[in-house]
Write a structure and sequence with these properties.
The chain has 376 residues and is α/β, with parallel strands linked by helices. The protein folds into two domains: 196 residues, Periplasmic binding protein-like II (D-Maltodextrin-Binding Protein, domain 2), CATH 3.40.190.10; 169 residues, Periplasmic binding protein-like II (D-Maltodextrin-Binding Protein, domain 2, 3-Layer(aba) Sandwich), CATH 3.40.190. The protein is 39% helix and 17% strand. It has 15 helices and twelve strands. Strands 1, 2, 3, 4, 5, 6, 7, 8, 9, 10, 11 and 12 form a twelve-stranded mixed beta sheet that branches. Helix 8 packs across helix 15.
Length: 376
Amino acid sequence: MADHENTKHSRRQVLRGSAFALIASLGCQLIPGATLAQSAPTGLSAELVAAAKAEGTLTYYHTTAIDPTATWTGEFTKKYGIKTQNVRGPSYPLWERWLTEERVGQHMADVVQITDTVLIEAAHKEGLIADYTPPSGAGIRPDMKKEGVWYTLFVNAMGIAWNTTKVTPEEDKLIREGGWKVLTDPRWKGRIATGTPASGGSSYSYVYMFLGGKRDQFGPDFVAKMAALKPQVYDSKSPMYDRLAAGEHAIVDQASQSDMGGFYQKGAPIRWVFPKPTPANLTVQTLSAKAPHPNAARLFQEWAASPEGQAAWFKVAGVASARLDTVDPRKAAKADWYKEDWYKDPEEIYINYLNDPGYVDPEKPIITEWNQIFGR
């Protein structure tokens, strides 16, 4: 409980802001006549590209899996010759690491990716987030960005995944057809895993559907039945997925389309399904106000929000673009998992929690409730 209380206290401080003063930046300058608080009035400029190339590198704090993210950022490097140093961690711990660094003047990250826009809003009020509008940001759906502050990279549906070598044909059919109540079936005792909602925005969004937005449909009783199965609880979803692929678990929840697609492409015996309603989270990206490589950061934000940058994710993951003009070509071609008879797209996406007062509550009370139910 002590670790949870410390995490809760720290998150409360994050969301309420602070009086910490920022120490001067490391001395990197923007292109002449521009600051990160100013948006380019028209399209991408040759001056920005040249200045970004001169900086030559950027540091990217991200929550997405290491290998696909490295492949994705590698496309940016190929295009512009700018290296990316990728630093991966669970959403909330990585965010608090960045906040701590910024508040003491250790400006390490240029670009930060996270799955909780509430935290970005708080940091923006504190002056830690750069105000920059990438020209390509105009193509991001209006409800998936805060202009000049954060932009969605992709939308990630979350469901139930299983290892086909660890379930019987009867269990396979049950998972595909049984809906969310499958997670409470006694047969999974000792064979199931889940992730704590305190790990990051995607896990929090997922759990919020059950204890928050759809409480009348699910609620504490549903979560308690799952807790009674004594699932292994992970502080980060990535290792949980790894252990599922390795056969250490038969079934897991919070199965993201992006990660499952990556495992499928590698030949892992993994399948996944999206019961109704299907919680989804936005993976978003923002710029540090004191980025040590500010021009490279701006160029990367431009590329990431563009059709090219969005489409690059399709090479490594099964995600939905935040742009209406960018669609996964594998779907139309019936390639990869889209050709499988077990796969079905989510039919009822749940994403309206973003404007739910309970979701944006800085105290995040469902984390405490979930911990109590799970005895953590």
